[in-house]
Specification:
Layout: H1 46-58, H2 75-88, H3 104-114, E1 126-130, H4 135-146, E2 150-155, H5 162-166, E3 170-173, H6 183-186, E4 191-194, H7 205-226, E5 230-234, H8 260-279, E6 283-288, E7 290-292, H9 300-308, E8 314-315, E9 324-326, H10 327-339, E10 347-350, H11 358-369, E11 377-378, H12 380-396, H13 407-414, H14 422-428, H15 436-448, H16 454-457
Parallel strand pairs: 1-2, 1-4, 2-3, 4-5, 5-6, 6-10, 7-9, 8-11
Helix pairs in contact: 1-12, 2-3, 3-4, 3-10, 4-10, 7-8, 9-11, 11-15, 12-13
């Protein structure tokens, strides 16, 4: 890590080197006879089914070149999108390229539709946002600007900040891993939203740790040194673990599965909680479910791409609940956490209280993007075995061969994962306003306007 030169920010704790403790695993030599006609046979051995699944997952992605021209939503689509949000809401990463994001009109509609009773609305505040170039960051920045705040963004020099600059956002080149680059953007700000995180699939554990843990510590210490009044740290619902079989409450112990993103996000939560207790850090932790909405190529986009490529499948029975939450509901939760004085020192789950099942979600996405709904049900443990083997190959090749599936992905989509929002509802006044099914329809409209498959283009 870069040496600390400025005396007002304590040095970050020494970065610890961690590597996944993968267990050696090899495929057996068993063979299987049978073609597509026998795919639903329950007499297959696990190794046989896993072999067929690996071939199914490996084939079918057409390689399309990324277009550089930004195709926007049609005026009719924007009008429908805005009208729905206005009627429904009358009561109240990695850097993305703008051609994979909604139009300005879409963002403005989303901002109006959030509908929080902001205690700071009308009072201009200087607010720093990390991760402002990402999917969630775009929505948050739009909402903050709509409320009259002066927004600053910390961005890597390689990130495209055109969208932000055009809207008057002050850009500060910097890196979470270098505490010296946080001094200037923190100077004079009243609030910080820390969204930035390492989310890329299959990177070394050290990269996740440097950004998600050490980077978070640097942000928190810089905020303390600058006298920031409120810091909202965005975490994830995966910190509780996956497949626990009941709605996860905020008082559950953090028990992430051993996967770099989950582990480092849980550790960053512990770090923030420790600094709240020991250093009086005025922070709030927000743990959202799986965030989706127009502009989302990570969750909705990847699923839609697979469905349109004819590679959709249902893990297990498909009756498990998923934690999908529409992006503007998450923004509502972030703003409430920032506004409510009693939120300081607490963690809150932000999700939808009426989740869809895995099969309902997949069928809805297929309908919205014009794809055939999946009909192949794959046993959970068979797909988990494929993911394990695929991860092993990725590890042995140093990441040159990306895993076809990951164990976290299988657990996330193949087990029952729900978040309790009782605490956020009672203490913040949070209320999800966009049903998951309606959100999938709106996101499908955006997806249909994209010139290429969004996940492949990223």
């Amino acid at each position: 890590m870069p040496a600390r030169a400025h005396g007002c920010i304590p040095s970050p704790s020494q970065t610890r080197s961690r590597t996944p403790a993968w267990t050696s695993w090899t495929w057996g030599s068993s063979t299987c006879r049978g073609g597509p006609a026998s795919r639903n046979s329950r007499t297959w051995s696990a190794a046989c089914l896993a072999g067929h699944l690996s071939r199914l997952l490996a084939r079918g992605y057409p390689r399309r070149t990324r277009t550089t021209s930004a195709r926007r939503m049609s005026p009719q689509c924007v009008a429908r999108w805005s009208a729905v949000h206005s009627s429904n809401m009358a009561a109240g990463g990695p850097a993305r390229s703008d051609n994979c994001l909604p139009t300005t009109s879409t963002f403005l509609a989303a901002s109006r539709h959030i509908g929080t009773a902001s205690a700071c609305k009308g009072e201009e505040m200087r607010i720093l946002v990390t991760g402002a170039t990402g999917f969630l960051g775009h929505y948050l920045v739009t909402a903050l600007l709509e409320r009259g705040h002066s927004v600053r963004a910390l961005a890597l020099p390689i990130e495209d900040t055109t969208w932000l600059r055009e809207r008057g956002v002050s850009i500060y080149p910097g890196d979470l891993r270098d505490p010296d680059t946080l001094i200037e953007p923190m100077r004079g700000v009243e609030g910080v939203f820390h969204l930035a995180a390492m989310t890329r699939v299959w990177r070394p554990m050290q990269e996740y740790y440097d950004v998600n843990v050490t980077g978070t510590e640097n942000v928190c210490r810089a905020a303390l040194a600058a006298g920031v009044q409120r810091l909202v740290h965005v975490s994830s619902g995966v910190v509780y673990g996956l497949g626990i079989g009941k709605p996860a409450r905020e008082d559950l112990p953090l028990a992430p599965i051993y996967e770099p993103y989950s582990v480092t996000k849980a550790e960053s939560d512990r770090l923030v909680q420790q600094m709240i207790a020991e250093d009086d850090l005025p922070a709030v932790i927000i743990r959202p479910g799986t965030v989706f909405g127009p502009g989302d190529s990570l969750n909705f986009g990847r699923i839609a791409d697979r469905l349109r490529a004819g590679k959709g499948l249902i893990v297990g029975s498909g009756n498990n609940a998923l934690t999908f939450v529409y992006v503007t509901d998450v923004i509502q939760g972030l703003l409430l956490a920032f506004d409510r004085e009693q939120a300081v020192g607490n963690a809150y789950n932000i999700a939808n209280d009426r989740p869809l099942t895995q099969e309902q979600t997949l069928r809805a996405i297929a309908e919205e993007v014009g794809a055939q709904p999946p009909s192949l049900h794959v046993p959970y443990y068979a797909l988990y075995a494929v993911a394990f083997a695929s991860e092993r190959v990725a590890t042995l090749t140093g990441g040159r061969i990306q895993p076809l599936a990951t164990r976290q992905g299988v657990k996330l989509y193949g087990t029952d994962n729900r978040l309790s929002i009782d605490k956020a509802r009672h203490e913040l006044g949070y209320a999800p306003r966009v049903p998951v099914r309606e959100g999938l329809r709106l996101t499908g409209e955006w997806y249909q306007q994209q010139p290429v498959a969004v996940a492949l283009a990223s």
